[in-house]
């Protein structure tokens, strides 16, 4: 079964300079040429260059899909941030919910509102997709991401992630 | 999760000061608002001053002024000045038995989640929660 092709949202807040809350920051859907910039931001944050992974992710989220969103923040032709999200139905038994799967902002542009602009644009995509709830998961020790999401009004969800080592 | 009284007073004081960064906050003012002893609160405010979170000035019109970065200072930073929210050292029997160790694992998990929560919430974020709650209280329609 193939996922329905759909038109990309016609307007994402910040998707054009006029609509952006931040002067000079363009929030728009990712393009193939942006992946190098995305990889650089992720490598800076994680210390691991995952080239194949990002190209695969672009194939999955970068194409035109109704419920998948891969946005970037561009300033003067340079990619300074990205965010990836997807609407999933009945994930873990929950009704349609927007999930944020990945996000990053270059350390050189943090505290400039780029993360907030990316998140705001993704929320708008989720709104257009008809969902009312957004979730994400961040490492317990990842204070940077946890603090950011908290600052945007996100609170602990009524779910507990679990894991174990396979025998 | 329960925090000690002086830790709660510290959090009240920091948030009150951060909500009015241009204003000197008087200890008795906070004490009256939260119904606590001004003497007890004074000790807490002095500790917050020593930690560099508040600036103090003496004399008429003196008081405390928020001196930290509200977007950086977390609840855990404040709590750390007053208590160790981690579990106390295990008592005899806890580490010597398999049941004691298993319960210790669970309690450690609870502690880790609590600490991560406190560490992820800045004073600025808490102020937003206060504002949201205030807005909600104002706009909430009275039930008929």
Structure description:
The complex is a heterodimer of chains A (167) and B (144). Chain A contains four helices and five strands. Chain A is an alpha+beta fold. Chain A has a single domain (3-151), classed as Aminopeptidase. Chain A has a five-stranded mixed beta sheet, sandwiched between helices. In chain A, helix 3 (114-128) links the parallel strand 4 and strand 5. The longest helix of chain A is centred in the last third of the chain and has 15 residues, at 114-128. In chain B, strand 1 (54-57) and strand 2 (63-66) form a beta hairpin. Chain B is built from six helices and two strands, in the order αααββααα. Chain B is mainly alpha-helical and 144 residues long. Chain B has a two-stranded antiparallel sheet. Chain B has helices at residues 5-19, 27-34, 38-50, 75-80, 98-120, 123-139; strands at residues 54-57, 63-66. The model of chain B has no long low-confidence stretch (mean pLDDT 89). Chain B is 57% helix and 6% strand. Chain B starts with a helix and ends in a 5-residue tail after the last helix. The chains are: A alpha+beta (167), B mainly alpha (144). The interface between A and B is medium-sized, with 11 and 14 residues.
Number of domains of chain A: 1
User: How would you name the oligomeric state of the polypeptide chains in this document?
Assistant: heterodimer
What form of chain A results from the Cα inertia axes? globular
What structural class do the secondary elements of chain A suggest?
alpha+beta
Outline type of chain B: globular
CATH architecture of chain A: 3-Layer(aba) Sandwich
First-to-last CA distance of chain A: 34 Å
Mean pLDDT across every amino acid position of chain B = 89
Beta-strand residue fraction of chain B:
5-15%
With strands numbered from the N-terminus, the spatial order across the biggest sheet of chain A is: 1-2-3-4-5
Number of helices of chain B: 6
- Mean pLDDT of chain A, rounded to whole units? 84
User: What does the radius of gyration of chain A come to?
Assistant: 16 Å
Rg of chain B, alpha carbons: 19 Å
- Percent helix range of chain B: 55-70%
Going across the biggest sheet of chain B, name each strand in turn.
1-2
């Amino acid at each position: 079964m193939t996922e329905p092709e759909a038109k990309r949202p016609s307007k994402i807040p910040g998707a054009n300079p006029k609509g952006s809350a931040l002067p000079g920051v363009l929030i728009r859907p990712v393009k193939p040429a942006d992946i190098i910039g995305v990889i650089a931001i992720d490598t800076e944050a994680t210390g691991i260059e995952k080239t194949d992974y990002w190209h695969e992710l672009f194939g999955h989220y970068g194409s035109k899909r109704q419920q998948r969103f891969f946005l970037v923040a561009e300033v003067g032709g340079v990619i300074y941030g990205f965010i990836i999200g997807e609407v999933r139905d009945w994930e873990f038994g929950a009704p349609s919910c927007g999930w944020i799967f990945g996000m990053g902002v270059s350390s050189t542009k943090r505290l400039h509102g780029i993360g907030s602009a990316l998140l705001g644009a993704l929320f708008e995509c989720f709104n257009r997709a008809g969902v009312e709830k957004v979730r994400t998961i961040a490492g317990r020790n990842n204070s940077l991401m946890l603090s950011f999401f908290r600052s945007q009004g996100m609170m602990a969800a009524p779910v507990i992630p679990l894991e174990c080592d396979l025998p | 999760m329960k925090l000690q009284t002086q830790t709660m007073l510290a959090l009240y004081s920091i948030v009150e000061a951060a909500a009015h960064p241009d204003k000197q906050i008087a200890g008795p003012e906070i004490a009256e608002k939260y119904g606590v002893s001004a003497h007890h609160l004074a000790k807490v405010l002095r500790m917050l001053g020593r930690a560099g979170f508040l600036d103090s000035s003496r004399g008429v019109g003196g008081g405390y002024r928020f001196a930290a970065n509200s977007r950086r200072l977390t609840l855990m930073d404040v709590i750390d000045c007053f208590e160790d929210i981690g579990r106390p050292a295990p008592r005899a029997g806890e580490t010597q038995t398999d049941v004691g160790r298993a319960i210790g694992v669970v309690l450690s998990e609870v502690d880790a989640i609590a600490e991560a929560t406190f560490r992820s919430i800045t004073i600025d974020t808490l102020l937003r929660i206060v504002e949201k709650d205030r807005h909600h209280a104002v706009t909430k329609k009275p039930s008929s």
